[in-house]
Specification:
Blueprint lengths: L3 H8 L3 H9 L6 H13 L4 H10 L4 E6 L11 H15 L4 E6 L2 H6 L8 H10 L4 E5 L5 H9 L4 E4 L8 E6 L1 H14 L5 E5 L5 H16 L9 E3 L4 H12 L7 E4 L2 H13 L9 E6 L12 E4 L2 H17 L7 E3 L2 E3 L11
Parallel strand pairs: 1-2, 1-3, 3-4, 4-5, 5-11, 6-7, 6-8, 8-9, 9-10
Antiparallel strand pairs: 10-12
Helix pairs in contact: 1-2, 1-3, 5-13, 9-10, 11-12
Pfam family, one: Peripla_BP_3
Protein name: LacI family transcriptional regulator
Keywords: DNA-binding, Transcription, Transcription regulation
């Protein structure tokens, strides 16, 4: 964002003169006014945003700290894309812009002094640019850096990872509750051997969904069989591989709860490759309710997250901190079971 100070320097006038051009133009000579207005147009200068930056010593920019390394698949996940649209829309409606702060390995190689491996340097960089606040998306290895952000006093909102500090909070979905509801639904259909394909280790939502799976079994009066718990990484290939492992068991499951829709689609493909019918031979439930869930055949029963609402809630929490000194309470968004064709309505044999 261009500031009034930059316009002033290019015009050879004071910041006060730039301010008068846009607020009290009659007090500035015609020649000076025309020169300032011409430079402002060329630079796409916004006097309102600049005034806010000067008065608060911050810009209208909110930094998004997110590991976008092309060697990691996280940035391609459809859930995150929908979430970011909600976040951007909510911030834009309040006059703020979202600035991506790359934290990939490539960026760290180019700028070794500014990376999540050196969070203090990263915090200093955000202060130099007078960022209004930060939105943090965890790649699974950023815990130390996020702690440094939370203790810096800069307004921070983390997505799907617990964060607390003088001006820090977090937003997450009811991952455990949603998973438990999915398992109870399968048990109510008569299934007794219910498996799960989990998300990656070290990922907070994945851990919560596994906890919910176990809780759902307990609430249905069913034992937990570790033989029916296999690991995944939220992506389709791991769902395919995990389902093949489960089907190779001596007593394979009659139903599976996959901790993401992407893995659930992989499980559907593995079942089809094994000659099984879904849901007649195997019931499948996912998590997220991304667009593909309603497009696959059979359509996927899933636990829906409020994806645009997730971004809106994160923006709301950040805006609250920008207007007040303290941090708001963490936000827990509800989930909803969306029943489609991949479960069927008949009891398991």
């Amino acid at each position: 964002m261009v500031t009034a100070r930059e316009v002033a320097q290019l015009c050879g006038v004071s910041v006060a003169t730039v301010s008068r051009v846009f607020n009290r133009p009659a007090t500035v000579s015609a020649a000076t006014r025309e020169r300032v207005e011409r430079v402002a147009r060329d630079l796409d200068f916004s006097p309102n945003e600049s005034a806010r930056a000067l008065s608060r010593q911050q810009s209208a920019m909110v930094g998004l700290v997110w590991d976008t390394d092309h060697r990691r698949p996280g940035w391609r996940h459809p859930f995150l894309q929908d979430l970011l649209l909600g976040l951007k829309s909510a911030l834009s409606s309040h006059g703020y812009h979202l600035l991506l702060l790359a934290t990939s390995d490539d960026a760290r190689d180019r700028h070794p002094g500014v990376s999540l491996a050196d969070p203090i340097g990263y915090v200093s960089m955000t202060r130099r640019h007078h960022l209004a606040g930060l939105v943090l998306i965890d790649s699974g290895t950023d815990a130390d850096a996020f702690t440094a952000f939370a203790q810096s006093g800069l307004p921070c909102v983390a997505l799907d990872v617990a964060l607390s500090g003088p001006r820090a909070t977090h937003v997450t979905s009811d991952n455990a509750g949603g998973a438990a509801e999915a398992v109870r639904h399968l048990a109510a259909l008569g299934h007794r051997r219910i498996a799960t394909i989990t998300g990656p280790r070290g990922n907070a939502p994945a851990a919560a969904r596994t906890e919910g799976y176990r809780r759902g079994l307990a609430e249905a009066g069913l034992p937990v069989s570790e033989d029916l718990v296999v690991g995944g990484d939220f992506y389709r290939e791991s769902g395919f591989v995990g389902m093949r492992r489960l089907l190779a068991r001596k007593e394979p499951p009659t139903a599976v709860f996959a901790a993401s829709d992407e893995m659930a689609v992989g499980a559907l493909l593995a079942a089809r490759a094994a000659g099984l019918r879904v849901p007649a031979d195997l019931a499948v439930v996912g998590f997220d309710d991304i667009e593909v869930a309603s497009l696959v055949d059979p359509a996927l029963t899933t636990v829906a997250q409020d994806k645009p609402g997730f971004g809106t809630a994160a923006a709301g929490a950040l805006l609250a901190m920008l207007e007040n000194a303290g941090a708001p309470e963490p936000v827990l968004l509800p989930t909803k079971l969306v029943v489609r064709d991949s479960c069927g309505g008949r009891s398991a044999r």
